[in-house]
């Protein structure tokens, strides 16, 4: 994938790190000033802009007063790669308000958020436009990799060129592993080969996710106009713009999704969905028609 650059005010470092973590979890390579200690990152940005898909600017009250942020936003605007993210402000400053702002107020990074979904969709569209991915690829990469599988672009390189090199190396390593496995299996099944083992017994069938989880849901007592769609498929659960790999399913169809350190629980009872976060906080949703 083509990388993106994040511009922010140092006073908003915590939120900037949260955004970077969220994008990298989707497999999107993110580049920021912390990747270039001792380097004039603005000069480097100007050199690398042709290889980037987007310049994401985090507009906050602090950023409005930052000359560096405005300079970086100007480069994004000039190259039609500007993505305006708003936190604590109602709109981007002139002349950057030519590009619509995407409000991110209230986003914690730990639950579905409409604004975050729009940010991801906007960045994905620019990546596709730059030829760095196919439509829907960023969302598909949100699923947690299976145990033992190579994790690509979760920790991107400091520049798009280095990112491509890491992806190529990981692909080569995977090919070596697959070739070794093929040769081992060929030897075991060859005529006269010794040490052949009996085929393992079939594993017991695993419980299936409760199909009632699929559908449109809104927070209890909220309007269905703000409903988010949940869909289960391909071994993952999609909640709005968020997608997580299903880790396990209870005997009653309750779904447990996400990595061990960020596990969510989805349980349905009638037209009520209870989502339990990793810190045991529960949110109740009501089913909407459609």
Helical content stands at 25-40%
State the low-pLDDT regions, or none: 138-171
Query: What is the H/E order?
Result: EHEHEHHEEHHHEEEEEEEE
Task: Tell me how many strands there are.
Answer: 13
Mean pLDDT: 75
Q: What's the gyration radius in Å?
A: 22 Å
How far the N terminus sits from the C terminus, by CA atoms, comes to 34 Å
What amount of the residues lies in strands?
A: 15-25%
Count of DSSP-assigned helices: 7
User: What does the largest sheet look like?
Assistant: 8 strands, antiparallel, barrel
Q: Which shape, going by the Cα principal axes?
A: globular
What can you tell me about this protein's structure?
The protein has 290 residues and is an alpha/beta fold. It has seven helices and 13 strands. The protein has helices spanning 13-25, 41-48, 61-64, 67-78, 114-129, 137-140, 160-189, and strands at 3-7, 30-31, 52-59, 82-86, 101-103, 215-219, 228-233, 236-239, 242-249, 255-257, 264-269, 272-276, 282-288. The chain has an eight-stranded antiparallel β-barrel with strand order 6-7-8-9-10-11-12-13. Strands 2-1-3-4-5 form a five-stranded parallel sheet, sandwiched between helices. The longest helix has 30 residues, at 160-189. Mean pLDDT is 75; it is low at 138-171.
